[in-house]
Amino acid sequence: MTNFKTGLDFALELDRNDKLSHFRNQFHIPKHTDGKDCIYLCGNSLGLQPRVTQSYINQELKDWAELGVEGHVHGKNPWLSYHELLTDNMASIVGAKPIEVVVMNTLTTNLHLMMVSFYKPTKKRYKIVIEGDAFPSDKYAVESQLRHHGYDDKEGLISWNSREGEELLRYEDLEKILERYGDEIALIMVGGVNYYTGQFFDLKRITELGHMHGCVVGFDCAHGAGNVNLDLHNSGADFAIWCSYKYLNSGPGSLSGVFVHERHAYNKELNRFTGWWSHNKETRFKMRDDFDMLPGAEGWQLSNPPILSMAAIKASLDVFAEAGMDNLVAKSKDLTAYFEFLLNELNNDNIKIITPSNENERGCQLSIQVKNADRNLNQKLTKAGIISDWREPDVIRCAPVPLYNSFEDIYNMVERLKLILNEK
Ligand SMILES: *Cc1c(COP(=O)(O)O)cnc(C)c1O
After folding, report:
1. How is domain 58-321 classified at the CATH fold level?
2. Residues at the annotated binding site for pyridoxal 5'-phosphate?
3. Residue 1: pLDDT above 80?
């Protein structure tokens, strides 16, 4: 869609024509002090709660109350195999085969577990490439892996940086890094969608480049899962990880998803940390058998999982399945383009959108850089009922989420931002 117009009437017309607009009612929208809905643009940080979540969790509380340990086998959704109820929907959201996906642990934990298997440094090839403005947890995790293997974390870490005066990363620069250091690099680990700029990387291109130079390639898709079409299987990536509490609306600190490419599904040579949940399901409770690895991503599980958290994930994935990822991505593109249009219409030289303008190189986040602004601006936005995310030094990140944000939300956001920017 390109023919946008200014004015509230046009926003309301877009909402009337939006086939997904009714999904907003399936979510709890936080209220502002005036009792009206907040304009919630923080789904990239913590997604909102689906109204059905409570009943999914209550079902498990009820089975626990009434059945105790028997719930593992006789619950409505037996806990022993509960995680399997999440696999198909999660796999379709990230574009993977079911054998490639499991939900377990939390994100940074899984990043470490993946590096146990996929970061195998040798004397000559031990370096790790990350993106310049990587999410801090990823950077810390990667540095600690270098140290764990006895390498210097400064010397061993290569940053794929943006150029002077630019925000976005260029593939030519990654190519140069690989031409120069390719045979010293063991692992390329970048965010599928950069958390700061919202740049959605070409996962296939990065993977092919890395593989051509003999590197393992993994992605942190925390800002991509439930936001963009990741198409993980076809990207050829060796592994990926993501959390379920951002775009996947599964509640604070909820569990993480893991992708391990099918080509590694039966590889028993890969080093890994194991636990009883990585062991063959059929014989798990015989307890005295030697270890017998489960094939696929499931073979990386350690523990029996927290069912209450999984129930929240199941609730959310059922909403996603009903809406359909393709429909969501289509609306997301319109919503984000409309947002961009209105911001550009402000004609304010103090604001600059640093997110790519190409709709295929971004998801639903726009990062807006405001000249000479500080945290004060964010406080004013909050006071005006807008929940967005401030990142130092001068960026407001806003994520119009297609499941629960309306075109009217975007219209009101930009109107309020305009008032605040024009204040003296
Ligand atoms: C949100 C996010 C994290 C957070 O990690 P947790 O282990 O869930 O606390 C890590 N990396 C990226 C890229 C993120 O976006």
Report:
1. Aspartate Aminotransferase; domain 2 (3.40.640)
2. 107-108, 135-138, 220, 223, 245, 276, 304
3. no
Kindly give the distance from the C-alpha atom of residue 195 to the centroid of ligand 1, in angstroms, as a whole number.
9
In 3-state terms the chain splits into helix, strand, coil percentages (rounded to 5) of 45, 15, 40
Residue in 137, 140, 144 to alter for ligand 1 test, most ligand atoms within 8 A of Cβ: 137
Task: Kindly give the distance from the C-alpha atom of residue 142 to the centroid of ligand 1, in angstroms, as a whole number.
Answer: 13
Least Cα distance to 107 among 275, 212, 253 occurs for 253
Half-sphere exposure of 418 (CA within 13 A, CB side): 12
HEC sequence for 76-87: CCCHHHCCHHHH
Asked if CATH classification 3.90.1150.10 holds for the domain at 8-44+325-421, the reply, yes or no, is: yes
Please choose from 113, 190, 243, 367 the residue to mutate so as to test ligand 1's pocket, defined by most ligand atoms within 8 A of CB: 243
pLDDT digits (tens, 9 = 90+) for 9-55: 999 999 999 999 999 999 999 999 989 999 999 999 999 999 999 99
The mean per-residue pLDDT over the stretch 354-363 comes to 97
Q: Is the pTM of this model over 0.85?
A: yes
**Which residue's C-alpha comes closest to atom 15 of ligand 1?**
222
Residues making up the annotated binding site are 107-108, 135-138, 220, 223, 245, 276, 304
Check whether 213 has a pLDDT greater than 80. yes
Q: Is residue 157 within 8 Å of residue 146, measured between CB atoms?
A: yes
Q: What pLDDT is stored for residue 103 in this prediction?
A: 98
Q: Where are the domains of the chain?
A: 8-44+325-421, 58-321
